[in-house]
Amino acid sequence: MKATRARVVIAGAGFGGLATTRALARAPVDVTLIDRRNFHLFQPLLYQVATAGLNPSNIAWPVRSILRDQANVCVLLGEVGGVDTGAHEVLVADGRRLPYDYLVLATGATHTYFGRDDWAPIAPGLKRIDDATLIRRRLLMAFERAENTDDPKQRRALTTFVIVGGGPTGVEMAGAIAELAQHALAADFRAIDPRDTRIILVEGASRLLGAFPEPLSEYARQELRRMGVEVRLNAKVVGCDPEGVSLTHDRIAACTVIWAAGVAASPAARWLGMPADRAGRALVETDLSVRGHPEIFVIGDTAAMKTAAGAPVPGLAPAAKQAGRHVARTIRAELAGRPRP
């Protein structure tokens, strides 16, 4: 690699990071793509792994294989721990320092329990392959345990599944569990009837899918109800333990609780010392760069992006891909001496 070529470091091999990388394939740059995993995870289908519809290998692909034919990319396995903006270096957890001329932070997000991290072992979230396989194991074992008990109260708790959070993940999980119980497992047991399973989706706001248009929210609610899912709106979770969930005015006995209620961005904003929203997402400029550091871009779930009309951009794969391609166009334009798009 020639030292005169611009060095682009991209942190994160999710949708945004990969889109940026691939859009720079023919640019006069040397790209370093670093991620703590050596595979790209298709997160929108994690719920299918969690409900035994797919295997983990169906939604995870080796990053090196994806980028095998892109000669200007070096893929590194490592976890980013900070950024030295003065030295233009990315700090890797193992002590390495990666110099950059342009930096793209696409480090994603994780689930948050709003200060109640003690609930995490009881109510796992769904962001990683390990989360999905844990939830799948709990779901299937709940039916097995229900088959083996003669206690009606215990059997009812074992076949009651609570999903906390009515965003895309919560809605998808509730629907997939209903499909699992009513179809895939319907004839597999003798002492229990999986079709009697109780599935409860709890949402603190007045409607599901709050980032989407209201007609879509209402359609999702009606479809879930048609599938037998109980939808609880304006319901706040105030307690969570191995025996169930406590709402403000109710108690639900359930042995399986799944958390889909909140998202916290990676520490990227903190690394850069820049403003962030309540979820920790970096408040970027209109071109997705960092104020005072035009060579640094933040995209995907790590950034608080807005449309031209000022509306928040949902944290979805298409938006992350579009942001990645935009950043690549910006870098290419600047290297060619053209104004930023």
Mind explaining what this structure looks like?
It is a single chain. The chain is elongated and about 75 Å long. The mean pLDDT is 96. Helix 1 (15-23) packs parallel to helix 9 (317-335) and helix 4 runs antiparallel to helix 5 (152-158). The relative contact order is 0.16. Helix 1 (15-23) links the parallel strand 1 (6-11) and strand 2. The protein has 341 residues and is an alpha/beta fold. It contains 9 helices and 20 strands. The protein has helices at 15-23, 46-50, 63-66, 129-147, 152-158, 168-184, 214-226, 268-272, 317-335; strands at residues 6-11, 29-35, 39-41, 60-62, 73-77, 80-84, 89-92, 97-99, 102-105, 109-111, 160-164, 198-202, 229-232, 237-241, 244-247, 250-253, 256-259, 263-265, 289-290, 293-298. The chain has 2 domains: 6-111 and 264-335, 3-Layer(bba) Sandwich (FAD/NAD(P)-binding domain); 117-259, 3-Layer(bba) Sandwich (FAD/NAD(P)-binding domain). The strands form 6 sheets. Strands 5-2-1-9-20-19 form a 6-stranded mixed beta sheet, with helices on one face. Strands 13-12-11-17 form a 4-stranded parallel beta sheet. Strands 6-7-8 form a 3-stranded antiparallel beta sheet. The longest helix is centred in the middle third of the chain and has 19 residues, at 129-147.
